[in-house]
Amino acid sequence: MLKFGQPRNAYELLGLPRSATSTQVRTRFRQLVRGYQKDLPTKELLKDEKFRQWVNAYLQLTGPDRREYDRRLRQRRGREEAADLISALSEPQLMLLEAEAALVRRKLKEGTELAKAALKQDPKNAGGYALLGDLLREQGKYNDALTMYNYAIQFDPNNRRYWQLLQEVTALREGKALPRRYRSTRPTIFNRPPIAWFAIILTMVLVGLTMVLSRQYWGEPWLFHIPKSLIIVAVADGFVLGLILAGTSAIGPFDDELVSYSISGFGPNMTPVGLFVIAPGVVFFWLAPVFYAVCALLDEHVSLSVVIALGCCGALDLALGALAPPEARKAVYALGGNFVFFGFLWGWMFGSIRRRVFEY
Q: Of these four, 37, 194, 277, 327, which has the most CB atoms within 10 Å of its CB?
């Protein structure tokens, strides 16, 4: 499932799952641009081929035709390149693109001048006012940013993001804590219904009982002095826990978290983050959290689902080690996580097989 070929569509180009929201698309685009060609002047960025590809993908996935684009993706089995949308942009829109790149690269004065120039030519551009508000906010000019966000809301009153930005800059101006962001309608571990929590708790109780009851029947040492029945219990309990956590949406779909989400890795293409989690996790489990921590730090993105998965597998391994025969305890602590994680991955994959709801 981990492919290293050329990206087949806008999602793969940005390294995002197809369920990514517009906010996630914008955040991802800015992450990619932030460290790209830092020495290249902002105006020269649009001449760079890779940057143009990112921009086209970004425009495609944040534009009004995204649903139609997704429909074509399903018809063509995931192969649909983003159109050359840059060539259709007006001069003010191109200037706003340059202003956004300047914001990400912390060239705030340059970005502010570009955004103001663009708004002079297109004074009803809600996105332009929001972007100018972002630039002014980063410079600590909260009153001016507040005015810009108000203009953005005036021209697009139904945009929840603009209202959120308005609330945030108001809190900053008054020295108050930032308000909580709008809760996503996507399922997470924090918004599961009681029945889901009941299933998760019941699963954990059953997993614990399985380990305790199996303690009397570990049998003779087998691999690395670890009893065969203990290895079977480790794989089975990992599988059940991964199945329930994924099936109740306490963790995100396997593809979204480990396959579709990609980072800059080997060569010029994006590399699925799962490569840096699955490979070390199966070979030596305790390397997986280290590898993922480095990836998350460099990519400036942490997946709660991956953290929960690694945490659960680590906890199961420690529990098995505590229950293992004394002569096998060190080996279980060191290698038991490999078997738990292997089972968890299969459970995660099977639990993710259900109807997908795409959000914009």
A: 277
The domains located in the chain, with CATH, are 10-173 (1.25.40.10), 194-351 (no CATH)
Cα separation, 308 vs 323, whole angstroms: 23
Query: What digits encode the pLDDT tens for the residues 27-68?
Result: 888 888 887 877 788 788 888 888 888 999 999 998 888 888
| Whole-number Å distance between alpha carbons of 173 and 151 | 18
Beta partners for 264?
Answer: 270
> Following DSSP, what letter does each residue of 25-37 receive, concatenated?
HHHHHHHHHHTSS
Collapse the DSSP code of 104 into the 3-class scheme (helix H, G, I; strand E, B; otherwise coil) and give the result: helix
pTM, two decimal places: 0.69
Q: Return the amino acid letter for 225.
A: H
Angle subtended at Cα 313 by Cα 272 and Cα 20, rounded to the nearest 5 degrees: 35
Provide mean pLDDT across the span 185-199: 71
* Rounded CA separation 14/79 (Å): 14
Beta-bridge partners for 271: 263
Please say whether the dihedral angle defined by the alpha carbons of residues 131, 132, 134 and 138, taken in this order, is positive or negative. positive
| CB-side neighbour CA atoms (13 Å) of 120 | 7
